[in-house]
Amino acid sequence: MELGEGERVQLLPAAALFRSLADPTRLAILRRLAVAGPARVVDLVAELELAQSTVSKHLACLSGCGLVGSRPVGRASMFSLAQPALSELLAAAEQLLAATGNAVALCPTYGRPVPGDIQVGTDS
Question: Tens digits of per-residue pLDDT, 37-61?
Fold first, then answer.
């Protein structure tokens, strides 16, 4: 069954949501905020061992998507999840990955080899 134009248009916001989550750095930031709560950029930089510019760029993306919000705390901003359902979505994704044995990592289109993993179809 092929999707009609109207159905495609209705799915565009969901596709944009998943594209916003499709970066390991953004996922790390979201997971950190979901697990440990609000944080300043300096906290995320230290905990995730990323450059300040990288964290700021990804927070701006997540903020623009409405997934992360901030409030001023002194001269800094405290970032947190803007949508409580995001924690549930991340937890569901982790359950799905566990249930499939992370099979999506082997997807020829979207998967990437993980260092140390056995590569299917290779002699290594």
Answer: 999 999 999 999 999 999 999 999 9
How many alpha carbons fall within 13 Å on the CB side of residue 110?
Answer: 9
Amino acid, single-letter form, for residue 89: L
Place of tokens 């905990």: 47
pLDDT at residue 120 is higher than 70 = no
How many Cβ atoms are within 10 Å of 99's Cβ, its own excluded? 9
Place of tokens 């697990």: 35
Count of Cβ atoms closer than 10 Å to residue 52 Cβ? 12
Q: Indicate the SS3 state at residue 33.
A: helix
Query: What structural domains does the chain harbor?
Result: 14-106 (1.10.10.10)
